[in-house]
Amino acid sequence: MQGAKTYRISFVLLALALLCAWLLNISSGSVSIPFADVLSTLFGETPEIASWKYIIWDYRFPKAFTSILVGAGLSLSGLLMQTLFRNPLAGPFVLGISSGASLGAALLLMGASLLTGYTSFAFLGDISLAIAASIGSFLVLLIVMIVAQRVKDTMALLIIGLMFGSITSAIVSVLAYFSKAENLQRFIFWSFGSVGNLSTNQLILLSGIVALGVLLSVLSVKSLNAFLLGENYAQSLGVSLQKSRLTTIVATGLLAGGITAFAGPIAFVGLAVPHLTRQIFDTMEHKVLIPAVMLYGAILMLLCDTLAQLPNSASVLPINAITSLVGAPVVIWLLVRKRKMMF
Amino acid sequence: MAKVGKNILSIKDLTIGYNSKMVAEHINFDLETGMLCGVVGINGIGKSTLLRTLGGFQPKLSGNILLKEQNIEKYTSSNLSKELSVVLTEQPASKNLTVQELIALGRQPYTNWLGSLTKEDKQQIEDSLDAFLLKDLRHRKCHELSDGQLQRVLVARAMAQDTSLILLDEPTTHLDLYHKVQILKMLQELSHEKQKTILFTTHEIDLAIQLCDRILILDGKEHPFGNPCELIEQKHFNRLFPSEMVQFDAKTGSFKVNK
């Protein structure tokens, strides 16, 4: 396919946009800090008020970094799913990965107290929540992978993923019905999604997971391109179907599962960003699309987080609601304008 | 007439079908370099099954398929992709690909892990665009093309894959007479000039008789194979359809409806 040359300007502009979105994100928050002070603090100087340095480096910086990881990772997993399932409506949610994470979180937050009869809040640190969610998403992923070995048809796999989603959300509803109000509230707060609560260790772990997912995706560039013709054509081009499908599913699982575990279920980024990206990058070449959707997703996530932060006020809106409010109209707009969604 | 060269495809006592359900058995034929061969027969007789079996999309039930004198199961998938390319009845999964992008995918067996195109790859893509009159359409998206244009693109992609054998499943369906003839003429040119062996299934028996070097008739029994004139002399086409409905006219090489 055509080289990345033609898109150099678009990439430079996107990188600049990412820098602007990042600066905007870092300089807004519940405490108003003048932009000049934000800049000088970022360059290592001590600002007028000492606590500003703490706010910027220990709170806003990791939060912005998480947003970038979450946006880039979810968008990439959406792109992988759309190519693998040859379906423009596929996203990280379709394989039931996010529902699996929800189930893990729900079992920990609401199930544990139901089973043991008392609430063990001391246990429920953020780390155990992330671990429970990871286990949940990887269990669902494991089942999907076992099914994937048996079911040859990718569309059937897509439907099976959706069914897993329905089963897990039904179990979550049952748990919610029997659970105590405060536990339910904790679960609901997790499902709002958040990019601001990660510790340094969690952030390092998440970076590692996302990096591995990106690496696997980059290694499958060629088979992803071949999948654009359909599975039979891909096979005739020498692509090993089983191996490529598995690599793609594992990459998606790492990206979507890891991110959902740490940041909660964040909707629409994975579905909408690949479509938005194709508005600028009019190509199907994954060598171009992979870096492009990651940049685009990071920008969108930073902007959504900036909006959720409600500048200069103490309240933070649920990020999951913001991404849906931004993402769903985008999908509708694309459908109305182009009449047909293509991937 | 094409130069007669070495054996590309040898089918020996092949039985095809699904699991235990046999579709056709005792299929035998040989194809040499640069031959254009049509497979004809009534619906459901096993034309597509034969093509899918030869293409490696479904296992054979028994018999041998030799590609360049080597058993086809012995090929690794990457080696096979350099010897055998296909044009299927299914549409490309993404119609958002441009003509050039789609044809370039045919070079995948030869490119590195990132799929970067070398000078040779690009030349091959240009040749394919040229041969199928697609130079002006190269930046068009596949969903903007007519059926005839899209079929040319898919065949051009197979040509870019630069294999000794090309299999096509009903390349002329959904096309008007002009485009049917156009695509078959192009296939004939490709086989004779580039020395490609081409096997395609079709319902256009009269066109196949005029253009093919060899024809395989799947009739559920003997599966006669040979050059069209011989097959006409041996009256094999007369037995293709129930005679009360249509009759074969040996003089014109076409079928007539019984009134």
Automatic annotation (TrEMBL), chain A:
One of its GO terms (biological process) is siderophore-iron import into cell. Pfam families: FecCD. CDD domains: TM_ABC_iron-siderophores_like. The keyword Membrane applies. One of its GO terms (molecular function) is transmembrane transporter activity. It is found in: Cell membrane. Keywords: Cell membrane, Membrane, Transmembrane, Transmembrane helix, Transport. GO terms for cellular component: plasma membrane. It is a multi-pass membrane protein. The chain crosses the membrane at residues 64-81, 93-115, 127-148, 155-178, 205-229, 249-276, 288-310, 316-336. Signal peptide: none annotated. Belongs to the binding-protein-dependent transport system permease family. FecCD subfamily. PANTHER family: FERRIC ENTEROBACTIN TRANSPORT SYSTEM PERMEASE PROTEIN (PTHR30472), TRANSPORT SYSTEM PERMEASE PROTEIN (PTHR30472:SF41). This is Iron ABC transporter permease. It comes from Flagellimonas lutimaris.
TrEMBL record, chain B:
GO terms for molecular function: ATP binding; ATP hydrolysis activity. One of its GO terms (biological process) is iron ion transport. It holds the Pfam family ABC_tran. Residues 9-245 form the ABC transporter domain. It is a peripheral membrane protein. GO terms for cellular component: plasma membrane. Keywords: ATP-binding, Cell membrane, Ion transport, Iron, Iron transport, Membrane, Nucleotide-binding, Transport. PROSITE patterns: ABC_TRANSPORTER_2. It is found in: Cell membrane. The keyword Oxidoreductase does not apply. The keyword Glycosyltransferase does not apply. InterPro entries: AAA+_ATPase, ABC_transporter-like_ATP-bd, P-loop_NTPase, Siderophore_ABC-ATPase. Its main location: membrane. This is ABC transporter ATP-binding protein. It comes from Flagellimonas lutimaris.
